[in-house]
Design goal:
The complex is a heterodimer of chains A (115) and B (110). By secondary structure, chain A is an all-beta fold. Chain A has strands spanning 4-7, 10-13, 19-25, 31-38, 42-49, 56-57, 65-67, 73-78, 87-94, 96-97, 100-101, 105-106, 110-114. The chains are: A mainly beta (115), B mainly beta (110).
């Protein structure tokens, strides 16, 4: 049972390059999330999705785009990477039961460095 | 969105009981309180969730007073492996996102 899988685990980019981070979950969860974590800042929500074909902005959406074309996948894109986007990125998924959000399951993170 | 406040850091020794308190003054009627644990280089992991009074599982206990404006995560007899960051969240109704704060960094020494 893989749970939440993030690809890649590490990446180094140059300023201005673009890339896509992939998140895949095998638990048939409706909700998926992308967070970034910086030292001393805790986890900050970038974008999230409440279902296939839907996305919504979180706390820090600028500079990122997302897509949820399939229920099991949630993609995070950086169109023109900036050094300020150097961070650890976490993907999570969750389901709903009794109209209530259930606990989120997290991946192991993607460590991204922008030079 | 309901916001939470918790201490930035706490220190403890092995074998002690640790209590981490979280304040959530504007919690709504349908909100639940949830705690996550995060070890270095890993994603957060769900610990416990509750609505009122007391909830206990194999890892921790969660105490919630009647007014629900605060909650306390209790870790009995901590060990070195409990050194982690602990996040308190107020879980809203389905269809809304969660907001993680900075969490509480717990350091356990021998």
């Amino acid at each position: 049972n893989a749970g939440v899988t993030q690809t890649p685990k590490f990446r180094v980019l140059k300023t201005g390059q673009s890339m896509t981070l992939l998140c895949a979950q095998d638990m048939n969860h409706e909700y998926m999330y992308w967070y970034r974590q910086d030292p001393g800042m805790g986890l900050r929500l970038i974008h999230y999705s409440v279902g296939e074909g839907t996305t919504a902005k979180g706390e820090v959406p600028d500079g990122y785009n997302v897509s949820r074309l399939k229920k099991q996948n949630f993609l995070l894109g950086l169109e023109s990477a900036a050094p300020s986007q150097t961070s650890v990125y976490f993907c999570a998924s969750s389901t709903i039961r009794d109209s209530r959000n259930q606990p989120q399951h997290f991946g192991d993170g993607t460590r991204l460095s922008i030079l | 969105l309901a916001k939470t406040t918790q201490p930035i850091s706490m220190d403890s020794y092995e074998g002690q009981e640790v209590n981490i308190t979280c304040s959530h003054n504007n919690i709504a009627t349908n909100d639940y309180i949830t705690w996550y644990q995060q070890f270095p280089s890993q994603g957060p992991r769900f610990i416990i969730q509750g609505y009122k009074t007391k909830v206990t599982n194999e890892v921790a206990s969660l105490f919630i007073p009647a007014d629900r404006k605060s909650s306390t995560l209790s870790l009995p007899r901590v060990s070195l492996s409990d050194t982690a960051v602990y996040y308190c969240l107020v879980v809203l109704q389905a269809g809304t996102a969660l907001i993680f704060g900075k969490g509480t960094t717990l350091s356990v020494s021998s």
